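In the design runs reported in the main text, the only information available to the sequence generator was the tokenized backbone. The following block is the verbatim input for one such run; it is reproduced so that readers can re-run the procedure and compare outputs position by position.
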């Protein structure tokens, strides 16, 4: 890499000769060639993925936006993640697991992983789990979490992983919405030296759910209560064969539901399927991270989020890679825990989020200097915009100025990376996500829907790993994301603001709707408002995302109390605890202001833009559309008094 030239959009970093020479993709013409996207997606599906029966058509768009990919094909993603590797690399390490306690670790080969997945698949069958049944998985970062996911997929069941940081109420809502038959969980796991009592949270959630069985992995050995006839230990389900035939499924067979936040209070169950998701996550893992057989790939995301699904589990395993998973907190017992793990295991490709990079930047370089990080050869980032300063810090201090920094833009809905550099061909500009992945056509639209250099980021063609539906809400799926262009073609609206520079490089500005990213975690304003309103003292609430130096954004709430309730420090505390119980710690507002009224338009819509301007101490702008303009000064007074 050389970081010589100054350019109008900042510095440009060219791929080094070394990276270029060895990269999977090193011909710039890939971008031109990929304009014919159906040919690319056909070729890749044939060259890199195994099918039990070939597909007849690459794409069926006759019922858009309910697109179907690889029509008529038979596949099972676990065949591509496991079976096909057994012969050539059965003894290769698939998973390196590091517990939070330093002495707790495990290595699992592809052969062993295959056997354990088969065994658990058979175990699920003995519990009556069939094709299309939903299994909710609520666990910490342990190998059995991946095993449970793959076991579901193997028998055609649908997994629904719920992030371990969500509360029992949030878990309950997801179990009920997905209509899960079985829950897979554990006694507990370690986080910052403490035991998170997972099973206890599940028990609370299940007070209001109807599931048939709960499988409990013994990880810690802490006390748990087992309900007779419902709860069963993972280890008691192991007396089943370790062979389980891989079910040949239709390309469009559902693989998983993952709930994510949108602009309404109710999280959306994003649905992904076996065929296209396998193709899309496989090829992006291979090309974007330039993954090779000898790599040790560490994506730090929790598996409870889409990044974990696509780039801890499915993409890397489909490529037969060695992945690393770590149970605990990044800075426990010391701030250099991550760097010591990279050194200890010789991690070569490292993929994390800007919030973590900013955190470590703040802690200082001395924590990195203690460790030899020379095994690293490529660095990735995801989840929110990385500012050029953090990008360069990452490049210099973690990558020692020889690892390309690969900024990847995508969403739960897109399933796979959509905009990102290809390390062998794409010049990098710190702060830019660079160019769309070959085979995906991205653009920007202004408010009228016309192409523009700045506006809302859109995707103008379907892509294989795209979500297929919202669980139980096909109308919401069809209405919310898609708009027709002049020629009647459907365009996918991402909800992100972006601009494009003279080189066609994309720069992401951030969400243009009421979706927040708190430490990289996606949350909706409406979801947190809903949690606040469910408290007996609250009549109305508005939540905004206030910029935060490390977390990116933090929720800040403006609350109107019901008659008979007075603002107090205790009530503020109580409301924070309430949000923690309703959603989880990540959703707790940093600040709660008790106001008399919220700024609303005459039609009753809350104008969150004004609250954000007040919170940031910025110019408020036009307030003539407000029903009552005096509310602005009153809210300013409340903030001033705090
Ligand atoms: C993968 C993931 C999606 C939202 C997305 C955007 C933001 C993700 C980004 C990025 C700037 C990047 N986002 N990657 N913003 N640069 N490289 O994070 O999925 O949790 O669904 O969030 O995250 O705002 O719309 P998800």
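Verbatim output:
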């Amino acid at each position: 890499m050389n970081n010589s030239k100054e350019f109008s959009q900042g510095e440009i970093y060219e791929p080094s000769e070394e990276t270029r020479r060895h990269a999977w993709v090193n011909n710039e013409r890939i971008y031109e060639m990929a304009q014919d996207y159906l040919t690319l997606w056909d070729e890749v599906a044939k060259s890199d993925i195994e099918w039990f029966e070939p597909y007849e058509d690459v794409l069926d768009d006759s019922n858009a936006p309910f697109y179907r990919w690889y029509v008529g094909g038979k596949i099972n993603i676990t065949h591509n993640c496991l079976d096909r590797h057994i012969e050539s690399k059965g003894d290769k390490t698939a998973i390196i697991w590091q517990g939070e306690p330093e002495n707790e670790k495990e290595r699992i080969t592809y052969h062993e992983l295959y056997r354990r997945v088969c065994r658990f698949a058979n175990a699920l069958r003995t519990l009556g789990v069939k094709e299309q049944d939903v299994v909710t998985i609520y666990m910490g970062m342990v190998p059995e979490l991946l095993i449970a996911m793959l076991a579901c997929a193997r028998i055609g069941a649908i997994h629904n992983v719920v992030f371990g940081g969500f509360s029992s109420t949030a878990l309950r809502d997801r179990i009920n919405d997905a209509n899960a038959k079985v829950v897979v969980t554990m006694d507990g796991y370690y986080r910052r030296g403490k035991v998170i009592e997972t099973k206890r949270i599940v028990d609370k959630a299940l007070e209001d759910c109807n599931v048939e069985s709960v499988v409990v992995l013994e990880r810690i050995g802490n006390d748990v209560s087992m309900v007779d006839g419902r709860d069963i230990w993972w280890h008691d389900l192991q007396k089943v064969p370790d062979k389980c035939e891989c079910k040949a499924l239709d390309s469009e067979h559902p693989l998983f539901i993952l709930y994510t936040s949108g602009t309404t209070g109710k999280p959306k169950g994003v649905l992904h399927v076996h065929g296209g998701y396998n193709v899309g996550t496989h090829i992006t893992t291979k090309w974007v991270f330039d993954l090779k057989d000898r790599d040790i790939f560490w994506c730090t995301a929790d598996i409870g989020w889409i990044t974990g699904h696509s780039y801890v589990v499915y993409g890397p395993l489909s490529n037969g890679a060695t992945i690393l998973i770590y149970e605990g907190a990044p800075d426990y017992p010391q701030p250099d825990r991550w760097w010591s793990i990279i050194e200890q295991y010789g991690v070569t490709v490292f993929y994390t989020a800007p919030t973590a990079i900013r955190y470590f930047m703040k802690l200082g370089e001395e924590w990195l200097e203690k460790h030899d990080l020379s095994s690293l050869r490529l660095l990735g980032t995801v989840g929110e915009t990385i500012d050029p300063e953090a990008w360069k810090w990452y490049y210099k201090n973690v990558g020692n100025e020889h690892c390309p920094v690969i900024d990847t833009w995508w969403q739960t809905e897109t399933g796979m990376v959509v905009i990102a550099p290809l390390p062998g061909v794409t010049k990098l500009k710190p702060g830019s996500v660079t160019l769309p992945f070959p085979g995906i056509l991205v653009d920007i639209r202004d408010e009228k829907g016309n192409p523009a250099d700045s506006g809302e980021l859109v995707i103008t063609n379907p892509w294989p790993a795209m979500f297929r539906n919202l669980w139980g809400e096909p109308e919401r799926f069809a209405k919310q994301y898609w708009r027709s262009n002049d020629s009647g073609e459907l365009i996918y609206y991402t909800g992100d603001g972006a601009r494009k520079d003279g080189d066609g490089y994309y720069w992401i500005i951030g969400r243009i709707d009421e979706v927040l990213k708190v430490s990289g975690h996606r949350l909706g304003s409406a979801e947190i408002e809903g949690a606040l309103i469910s408290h007996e003292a609250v009549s109305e609430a508005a939540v905004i995302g206030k910029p935060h130096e490390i977390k990116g954004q933090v929720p800040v709430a403006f609350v109107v109390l019901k008659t008979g309730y007075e603002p107090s420090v205790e009530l503020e505390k109580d409301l924070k605890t309430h949000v923690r119980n309703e959603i989880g710690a990540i959703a707790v507002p940093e600040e709660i202001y008790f106001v008399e009224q919220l700024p609303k338009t005459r039609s009753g819509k809350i104008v969150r833009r004004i609250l954000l301007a007040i919170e940031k101490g910025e110019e408020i702008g036009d307030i003539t559309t407000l029903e009552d303009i005096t509310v602005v000064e009153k809210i300013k007074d409340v903030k001033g008094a705090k």
